[in-house]
Amino acid sequence: MLSLATEIAGRYFASCLMNAAGIRCQSRRDLDALVQSSAGAYVTKSATPAPRSGNPAPRMATFPNGSFNSMGLPNNGLAYYLDYVLADEQKRPGKTNFLSLAGTSLADNLAMLHQINDSAYTGFVELNLSCPNVPGHPQTGYDFEATRQTLEAVFDFYQKPLGVKLPPYFDLAHFDAIAAVLNQFPLSFVTTINSVGNGLLVNVETETVVIKPKGGFGGIGGASVKPTALANVRALSQRLNPAIAVIGVGGIMSGKDAFEHILCGASMLQIGTQFGYEGVAVFERIAKELGDIMLLKGYSSIDDFRGKLKTLA
Ligand code: SIN
After folding, report:
1. Whole-structure pTM over 0.90, yes or no?
2. Where does the source fall among the domains of life (predicted)?
3. CB 72 near ligand 1, within 6 Å
């Protein structure tokens, strides 16, 4: 019997496929579509304490094998998403989903977490330490000391299951350094990677950048970032306490990409760019393609091959 089920921090998910924060998860309508889809869970658009309209348009673009954006955290504010997940928990008790937070300061993050801690919410929080698109606010995940201070302040009071969304790292010393910080805390999961921040696309015809915010700099997603995502999933899986699950995101367009992420150690897979293009049908398609690969290889569950990537002798 083939199963794509997975577990994170003792919570069961019937499918290891879900959306990535930011894509088609900003409005109730988007979230309702995810609830009705075959995704194993959903994550809400990263929230700030108050609604934000985000950066000026044009703020997203596509290019061959990739997506590009500097959205700047447009969202409907924490109350909107907290209301949504609370109502959903009442309707579907026992279902775990992910409430994403991306305050632009530690104070904002702590204020939102206090609100969630004091609420009836029982699901996961994905604390986004890696948005590259807010002018004047560097990504916390690239500052190891700030990340440690953030998590110290969070776990000083926060009692519910929480994970962090990380930026991509590019050096083995940085994998060691961030893992050493994360291993000090009772995290349920890490989500890796956010977009590869501050890339630049050029329009040769107009001799201009292609998006307006930040002088044209933006985060890269989609197929182009898969090798970076796989490296981060693999490197963090090898370094983190086994109690911290790794959620893989980056360049998952097919069942083969999903299989690769799991082989590198991912327990759950988030689909961003391709979900944006394809909508909720992507979850069924990729589940089918992943299941077909598993059947061919004689695997019946993702645990049969999760983290079992081999190196060459
Ligand atoms: C954005 O809204 O700018 C994207 C969010 C993110 O990359 O974390």
Report:
1. yes
2. Bacteria
3. yes
